[in-house]
């Protein structure tokens, strides 16, 4: 006979059945967010809860919600709203584990899936529905889902729901529910704009904030490496080969860039698959199942696609593109180092993006350490002799440190220009003299050839006007951006036709 736990969840008021199920799942002691939120939720108070990613927020709202269900009633009583399909699938999996052996029925209602199949399953009268606001509202409009019996509504990752523009759909659903329903908002970050929604829809909400100043897990190590734009993929390849993480998530900013990024990463020998936000449900589910099963090492995704995912085997998070703000950094790195486990967050940036890392470190109060990689090892400081010559700016001209500046005392700009024209391609002495800043004999204007070569630039304002006469080919922003991203890409990938411009 299992010995009942009297020091953990039982003291919070959780039903003995669920205490036993948690013990079978090797969950014995509640986390801080669970300790603070569960007693308030059991009292049916409205709650706004903020805690780090990976601290157990799902159980904090799932256990009280399940405990309030009356299985004798054949109607939906709990609604969980999520921003993404993957998060919805994850919550449904947790609820299925908790309710195994009970009469509680759970159904997933997410966009991208067959609505006819979902309508058929709704005939079984589920007690808990988990889904995206758009699909649930669609089913309500079709009168296939009734809101009159909803007693508890949870909005998980509420800031993301708000950011994606789904808040008006959430409010439309709230209008159709009883006024006595309980509301629970959960997230790791709470934007100030959300306060107006809280004030309008909640009745004297309780705010639960677990160490809000510590927005990332203390078990996380934050690192960054600096490289050239064209070296991002190769830097990632070298780090993966060096550390060989069991599994890692690689973040990129734009969904449209995932295909090319996956192709580049595979080309350099990495085991990677993409998680596309706009792909079919089956494709996304197949990618997640393969990643959970360990069939590939790296999962490349955007912020939206990977929001809220709980993947215990992920030991590293790589930012191939820098996050757009500190909140997105918090959610990205929160995919590892969860529930007390160690994790490593690595940002691969260019020199121009250095200020972004500095800003994140300051606003989040964390130490993001710069590391250096050389000869298959990572160093805290740059190894002697490994640094490329630093670039310096003097007088508006950028050049490498140690490179001799032109000697303006010995050769004026027109004279130096004339010397270059006078030096024949095979005249090594003249070229050497020019590199040394010394004016060769007869290299001034008087030594210029009688007939200027075709490539010579006409002198004076008229010459500059002549240069401007031939207009260069102007490239579109899309072409310029494509060239920037394809630096260092294989030739076959560079030759791919450009995507059609959707804005036209």
Q: Which tags fit this structure?
A:
alpha/beta; seven-stranded parallel β-sheet; 18 strands; globular; Rossmann fold; 504 residues
Brief account:
The protein is α/β, with parallel strands linked by helices and 504 residues long. It contains 19 helices and 18 strands. It folds into 3 domains: 201 residues, Rossmann fold (3-Layer(aba) Sandwich), CATH 3.40.50.300; 160 residues, Rossmann fold (3-Layer(aba) Sandwich); 41 residues, no CATH class.
What features would you describe in this structure?
The chain has 504 residues and is α/β, with parallel strands linked by helices. The chain contains 19 helices and 18 strands. The strands form 4 sheets. A 7-stranded parallel β-sheet has the order 3-4-2-5-6-1-7, sandwiched between helices. Strands 10-11-9-12-13-8-14 form a 7-stranded parallel β-sheet, with helices on both faces. Helix 2 (32-42) packs parallel to helix 3 (57-67) and helix 6 (133-141) packs parallel to helix 8. It is globular and about 75 Å long. It starts with 15 loop residues before the first helix and ends in a 10-residue tail after the last helix.
